[in-house]
Every structure is written in C-alpha cells, then in structure tokens.
Design a protein that fits this description.
Elements: H1 2-20, E1 25-30, E2 37-46, E3 49-57, E4 84-87, E5 90-91, E6 98-105, E7 110-119, E8 124-131, E9 134-142
Length: 144
Amino acid sequence: MKTTLAAIVLAAISATAMAQSTPVGLWRNVDDKSGEAKAEIRIGEAGGALIGRIDKSLRKDTKPDAICDECTDDRKGKPIAGLEIIRGGKKAEGKDVWEGGKILDPENGKEYRASFTPIDGGRKLEVRGYLGPFWRTQTWNRVQ
C-alpha cells in the first residue's frame, strides 16, 4: 500500500514538473524600464503551435476598454484584453525551446520573430523577440 501511494505521489510530482517546462500557462511580463508588471499573458497550444493572449493589463494607465491602435493587421482596433499577441512557435527537436513563432508589441504595433524558453524549472520564461539580426529578451514569471 505504501509503495503504491509513493509511486502515485512520485508520478504526480513528475507530471507537474514536466508540465512546468513548457510555455503553456499564465505569465506576467514586466516593463524593462520601470520594472512594473505590464500584463498577464495566457499561452496555450493549438495544433502543436503556441497561441498567447493578453489575459489582463496590469498597467495603471491602461483604460479597461483600450484597443490596439498601433496594430496594422487583423488585430487593429481590437481590445487589448484578449488580444492575441503570440502566434505560432513549435518545440524545437531535442531542445526545451519553442521557435518559429511571432510576438506582437501592442504598444507600437510591431510584430517580431520570437522564441520561448522555459528556465528556472519552468518558473520563468525567456521570451526573445528578433528584428533582423537584433534581438531583445524579456523574462516573464509564471503566475501560480
């Protein structure tokens, strides 16, 4: 009985740890300049590719009914809350990195090539946006 219970507990812990080494989940991003939390982004998976939406804005200066004025594609004029900012990105063979996706910065309407790498046991997510040979990396925190 104790052996079976221990096996079940170990399996549950292992499954939780494996689930955490993925970008799928709820994340909080932080403004690079001010250090303030900007938004909570919910990342899911559809058809083997990532999809991410702004769950809610955490900025004090964002109106609840704010829309993406700067977007230039099908997201133009759409509400910031619920806005799809991550499209695509598939797990790279043999690596814990999701590549080939795109990420939108709703503040300037620009879309960047992106990669997503879970770090720190899945508690953090390195989000790297690329524009030509240049890139910028943000570290997002998993919301428990």
